[in-house]
Amino acid sequence: MSLPLGDPRTIGPRIRMMMPHLTPLEGRVVDMILGRRDFGEATSLKTVAEDAGVSEAMIVKVAKKLGFDGFRDFRAGLAGYNRLPTADLHEELSPDDTDAEIARKVFRTSVHALEETLAILDPEALERAADLIFGARQRDLYGVGGSAQIARDVAHKLLRIGVRTSVFDDTHMMLMSASLLGEGDVAIAFSHSGASTAVIEAVELARRRGARTIALTNYATSPLAAVADVVLCSTAQGSPLLGENAAARIAQLIIFDAVFAAVARRDLKAAERNLAATMGAVAGKRRGA
């Protein structure tokens, strides 16, 4: 996945996507730099190295490992990112916070995730995903844990417009499903980390059988992304209490809201007809209906 380098909103996501590829020491160095509120164009390489307790060469190495040309390029990118209006939206929870303050911080973290996910969203990948889902003969959705809940939400959305899917959240069932897929079918995999073995193995098998594959993940360089034909990425900044998953889950649901709308647009009359039918079918299940 290629992020637009000229857009400062992509700097944070770009760094976070590369964090799994850093060593523990390199990760701590990056966390220290990201935690500096005074980091800017005037921050020297020597100062950063001394504060991190590592050599200047290590700082340059980390910058290059994150995809930058060197420390100056990294410093310019991060300084631009820190100047964004949304840069301060993410705030860590504190034991001294009131319930109202906690609610505000949780909401702002989700807003931050949505802003940055939109900035890195690949329009071509979104279009390809919608085409594959719309044109598929069979659509099987894979996910475990919290990702399975996202898969079920997507299946519910698509069923409303007459696009039938099957959801699998068991390792054996995913593999059995994948073994029966073939050309004209699509497997859609959901994994925040992109490292879930059960999901990756099912996608690999589906691909060997000739099916096309779509992945929704928080890491464009993850093992799952590497084996998918189409990759859709969310991005969320983690916190000790909420982790990344809480905010990323909101972003991932919105990504597939967009995919859902794009699929519906491909045959709007059929989508509207099916939506009316499915809404009518459950209308009598509401109190007062």
Verbal overview:
The chain has 289 residues and is an alpha/beta fold. It folds into 2 domains: 1-86, Winged helix-like DNA-binding domain superfamily/Winged helix DNA-binding domain (Arc Repressor Mutant, subunit A, Orthogonal Bundle), CATH 1.10.10.10; 121-283, 3-Layer(aba) Sandwich (Rossmann fold). The protein is 56% helix and 8% strand. The chain is built from 13 helices and 5 strands. The chain has a 5-stranded parallel β-sheet, sandwiched between helices. Strand 3 (186-190), helix 10 and strand 4 (212-217) form a beta-alpha-beta unit. Helix 7 (123-135) packs across helix 12 (245-265). The longest helix has 22 residues, at 99-120. The protein is globular. The chain starts with 10 loop residues before the first helix and ends in a 6-residue tail after the last helix. 38% of the residues are buried.
What structural category do the secondary elements indicate? Answer: alpha/beta
The overall pLDDT, averaged over residues, is 88
- What can be said about the biggest beta sheet? 5 strands, parallel
CATH architecture of the largest domain: 3-Layer(aba) Sandwich
Please identify which CATH superfamily of the largest domain we are dealing with. Answer: Glucose-6-phosphate isomerase like protein, domain 1
* Lateral strand order in the biggest sheet: 2-1-3-4-5
Q: Spans of 5+ residues with little confidence (pLDDT < 50)?
A: none
Q: What order do the SSEs take from the amino end to the carboxyl end, as H and E? A: HHHHHHHEHEHEHEHEHH
| Number of structurally distinct domains | 2
Number of helices: 13
Give a count of the beta strands, DSSP E runs of length 2 or more.
5
**Quaternary organisation of the protein chains:** single chain
Q: In percent terms, what proportion of residues is strand?
A: 5-15%
> At the first level of CATH, what is the class of the largest domain?
Alpha Beta
The span between the termini is: 48 Å
**And the CATH topology of the largest domain?**
Rossmann fold
Q: Helix share of residues?
A: 55-70%
Radius of gyration computed on alpha carbons: 21 Å
- What is the general shape? globular
